[in-house]
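Pilot study result, target chain (113 residues):
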Amino acid sequence: MKTQILVLTGPDVAVGGADAVCLRLAELYGAGAGAVECDVGALTAPGLAAVETLARLRLTARRWGRGLLVTGAGPELRALLGLVGLVELLGQPEQREPPGGVEEGVEPDDPPA
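Predicted structure:
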């Protein structure tokens, strides 16, 4: 299985465009893609329709049991994804969670939580 690239443009994230993009993603997985890199660099003024499209792409990837990574996100899209809790699509841990493999230490004199 190899990683494929899915490029999103303005029409892909317009209201009602998510269905077609999710179908394209499912076709990539059906053709053997192990993971898909979703390039959103062409989105210059992303809004909630872009967030909805990315959320639905994530659900499609989960249904297939495959990976989805969003690349090329500008500051506006990063902020929107952070607000709705989808920042992990960018390959970054959420701010309130430690990165994977990091354990929080407890000192003997720490008060109980």
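One observation from the pilot: The first helix runs from residue 18 to 30. A full batch analysis is planned for the follow-on phase.
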